[in-house]
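Contributing new complexes? Match this layout with glutamic acid.
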Amino acid sequence: MRNTKPLGLAAMAAAAALTLTACGGGEEQAGGGETGGSGESVRIGIKYDQPGLGFRDGDEYTGFDVDVATYVANELGYSEDQIEWVESPSANRENMLANDQVDMIFATYSITDERDQTVDFAGPYFVAGQDLLVRAEDNSIQGPADLEGKNLCSVTGSTSAQRVKEDQPGANLVEQPGYADCLTALESGQVDAVTTDDIILAGLAATDANQGKFKVVGNTFSEERYGVGLPQGSDQCEAVNEAITKMIDEGAWEEAVTANTEGADYSFNEELNPPEMEPCGE
Ligand code: GLU
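Output block (do not edit by hand):
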């Protein structure tokens, strides 16, 4: 359905053409995509290993982030085959935007003041909450206060790791590049819990391979407002916010949440979702 090999080549050709344009002085196009879809591609950073949010299986890209990104890209004038998906692990997101490796990021990317120093955010398009995942038979961990002396896994560069470092210094935190790596450590007993946003944990726990092995504790301790990461100084924020608002108003947002959390033991926080867009440039 999505990126096939020939499209990948087309995208590379488009990128080469853009480079030439940039050399010729057409600086504005160097970012790879302009509102209005001029026949070029748009490079969108997503996760590849978070089922239900951003997930790659061969040439198929699925999940809520992928659906919101596709909707927004369409509104900006890009058809589905003009989207070039790029893997954006948690620790690399700011750099990927700053180094012009992607045009936008939809990767469970929480809006924070610290990140806002180096990137711009549109949105938020979803609000999740940090939670804990434990082995199905473990009743000893009911919330962050029970983490004292426990081995805990989270991901480098995430708000999840940062928060437990600050608030639960008594936990032994192990950092991995992605949450799927943390689940391996949880299953083998190397760690006692995995922490990140509830929706990510629910998606990982619901895969066929993980059925019955883990449970989400269900005691959230943060608000994670998922923003659309944009390069600092981008002029796309307003257009992205309008697109998200349209997606919500049309009902496509709710459909996407429902479809992508089907089978997972998850219901979104209705007090916080769907969220209001924050003003751009603040
Ligand atoms: N939403 C959190 C963050 O942006 C955790 C999930 C992630 O690592 O993507 O850091």
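Reviewers usually confirm one structural detail per submission. For this one: The mean pLDDT is 89.
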